[in-house]
Amino acid sequence: MTREQLTKNIAALPPAARRQVEELVEILGSQQQPAKKMAIKTTDFEKSGFIGMWKNRNDLKSSTNWVRKLRQSEW
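Predicted structure:
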């Protein structure tokens, strides 16, 4: 659909439906902006303490075995 056809289709809608289209466009536009603001720099994440937090845990040496044992105890 071309932009011109889209404009005509929206103009042909009843007023209440046009308001819904406008609201939807506003919602979709606002959802795009926070994604840019929420970007985390790699250096910030590295300083957070999450990287390597489980390096000394012997029970997590093999994630496959850990999940298998967890499933056996829960199921």
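Summary: The radius of gyration is 25 Å.
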